[in-house]
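lol so apparently i was supposed to do this last week
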Amino acid sequence: MASQLEYDLKHYINGQQVAGISGRYSSVYNPAIGKVISQTPLASGDEVRSAIAAAHAAFPAWSETPPGKRAQVMFNFRSLIIEHMDEIATLVSREHGKTIDDAKGSITRGLEVVEFACGISQLLKGEYSENVAGGVDTWNMRQPLGVCAGITPFNFPAMVPMWMFPMAIACGNTFILKPSEKNPSCSLRLAELLTEAGLPNGVFNVVNGDKEAVDTLLTDDRVQAISFVGSTPIGEYIYQTGCANNKRVQALCGAKNHMVIMEDADIDQVVDAVMGAAYGSAGERCMAISVVVSVGDSAADAMLEKLVPRVSSLKVGPYTDSEAEMGPVITPESQSRIKGYIDAGVAEGASLLIDGRDLTVKGHENGCFVGATIFDQVTPDMSIYTDEIFGPVLCVVRVETYEEAVKIINEHEYGNGTAIFTRDGDAARNFAHRIQIGMVGVNVPIPVPMAFHSFGGWKRSLFGDHHIHGPEGVRFYTRMKTVTTRWPSGMRSGAVFNFKAGGEH
Ligand code: NAD
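anyway here it is w/ nicotinamide-adenine-dinucleotide bound
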């Protein structure tokens, strides 16, 4: 078996690559050819505990390192990512399938979090109140938590880990990343670049694995906080288990993102937006638009008249084809699951306008491709509407009124992202105010907040109290301490046995 594989995969613990010894492996595909190209070692509990021990040992010195010096490592890391952009993008595309341009775009979004983390000295500044009582001052500081862990999905092998570890590390924590077993190469390379950037050994570690590795992280007392990004059932389990083990947990989960089109929308703008938002990265984005809700038939009819020919001529191909606009999905299992949803949509009575089930790409006949698909006349009881398909399948739902559009979105279990396309400022303002969704776009189909804001959904798209990166990232990866100070030369109030109004201490 080993001779057929293209390369080896290991863990990265305490500043070096470490071979897996559990004897358990998971297959890594090159989805463009539908072939297994490597095997991810799945860590045993003991292997994970050796990473936790390294991170635990590195914490005292790293947390005492001044923020400006921690930021210097982030500045170096930023330069190294830019220098190695082509190489990292190829690692992402080879194991994920997305186009090279898309991979570079996602790395850049992660890089922006690194850039935000470079300002950590400013971000960690506390607050100070002088003379809160006679001769008494109060100030607060934010201190790191200790060992933090990140568990990440397959769809953004560079960006999602970089939503987490730059913030955690810059705040003074040490970190263990458990990337998706489907595409771990990018995380392992980022670990090497962090070491090259000057990060001390043990501050950042990568353990590959499955449930056994995750459960070890969730139950070990030395791990203080868990960031998770992935599907809702797993995220809910991680949130509940992590909280039961007294950890701080943020779990960002699945999505079904609706785009409302009003009758006054600019239809050309809508069509461009849908093309990128529904089919970019083969729909494997937690912010992909998977449902268009048309208020009135005329907007849907006008959109479909222009959208159908565009989708029919979408260029699907491997990442090695620079002309390709959309790549394959992640694995043969995922390909069958998505095709199964298209079967279900037909059986449930939706109108299949474009069928992606039979697409083959010349020269890549075994690739995990699914063609771009459109269903019209979808209703909220159908599985293609209720479930996250996570593939290039767009559902068009027609409603008669704006109120109906708001109602179905608010009633959906997921609440990650949404958008409204309109020229009507009143409608847009009303939508932003009333919609039960974490990230809202007005004529912006994928409203992903920049690194200096924070990213996160509502309802069953996020478990926990904190969104990720930006100011919320600093709050998640630190805890506040408040110090109240009186010096002997200050005013004395004598012994006090009861709380008094006016802040007297
Ligand atoms: P997944 O839930 O299958 O896997 C996510 C992580 O959990 C992986 O590291 C995986 O190894 C681990 N895992 C899987 N099964 C586990 C188990 N039984 N116990 C413990 N850990 C387990 O998700 P995926 O298929 O890799 O990614 C796609 C999902 O991620 C979609 O639902 C997508 O919406 C979601 N996602 C959400 C966001 C967001 O910000 N909300 C961003 C990206 C992806």
